[in-house]
Amino acid sequence: MKKLLVLISVVAIAGNAFAQKVDNALQGYFEEQGNETFYKSFNFDGNGKIVDGFKSSYYFTRNDSLVVIPDKDVFVFKIKKNKLIGISDWVKNGVWIRKKDSTEVNNRVNPVEAQKRAALLAGYYDKTKNMSGLDALFSNTNDYTKISEDFCNQGLAKACLNAFGLKMMEYTPGFFGDLKKIKDKKLKPHPELIALSKKIIDLGETEGYNVLGAYYHLLGLREKAFETWKEGEKNGDPASMMSMGLIEVGEEMDKAPKSPGIKKKKKK
């Protein structure tokens, strides 16, 4: 009887592991059919990242489900052959069909490492899907920050990016007030944030340049910010290029002469 129970337990555990198979090998270009959502296409690289975007977006599959984790929010889809069917907010009722491309090649790189990233991302998602940045700020236990740091230390770049944002809010007095006044405080960059951005870059995530540049700019260190963003652009980070462009446009608009509020009366 004991042997039978052990055998049943082993089969149950193995079955559960199989049922919860996590991966990120999905690849290809998926285009929306119709106009149900704001997201017209998704391009999966076969290694856990969505390409052609200005912000880092990650994904994993679990059984017949696809979870996409962009900069904010989470998109959940059901996978049906070559179709993705949106079931969560922002993508609900949308249908995306995989487009065949004669030049398409298998972009899967180092499957063992990719599989590890998929498992880490799924674990991080499971632990934080009901949390937000506000939980980290107003919770005594500060679980969100702790969980992010833990997964960051295990090598998950997405968790490191989240930890950077949370730590930046924590280490920047006045973050939730007038951001322009932060520059007047002449704060020194926090060494932990500099080290964290380097870790993000070392994990292969070029957005580490962008977040560090944004932090420098927040503190009023414009020259260091642009120096960092230019380094990011040189290393292929589209977010750094976008940040520089937006800041430069904003600065040009500030320099432009303001039109008078009251029009002069025409002479008769």
Could you outline the blueprint of secondary structure elements for this entry?
Elements: H1 2-19, E1 22-23, E2 27-32, E3 41-45, E4 49-50, E5 57-62, E6 65-69, E7 75-80, E8 83-86, E9 95-99, H2 111-128, H3 133-138, H4 143-153, H5 157-171, H6 179-184, H7 191-202, H8 207-218, H9 222-234, H10 238-255
How does this structure look, described?
By secondary structure, this protein is an alpha+beta fold. The protein has two domains: 79 residues, Lipocalin (Beta Barrel), CATH 2.40.128; 124 residues, no CATH class. 48% of the residues lie in helices and 15% in strands. α7 runs antiparallel to α8. The termini are far apart. The relative contact order is 0.08.
**Relative strand content:** 15-25%
Query: What general form does the structure show?
Result: globular
SSE string, helix = H, strand = E?
HEEEEEEEEEHHHHHHHHH
Terminal-residue CA separation: 109 Å
Q: Helix count? A: 10
Poorly predicted segments: 1-18
Count structural domains: 2
Classify the helix fraction into a percent range: 40-55%
Using the CA coordinates, give the radius of gyration. Answer: 23 Å
Give average pLDDT, whole number. Answer: 86
Question: How many strands in all?
Answer: 9
Report on the biggest sheet.
9 strands, antiparallel
Helix/strand/pairing category: alpha+beta
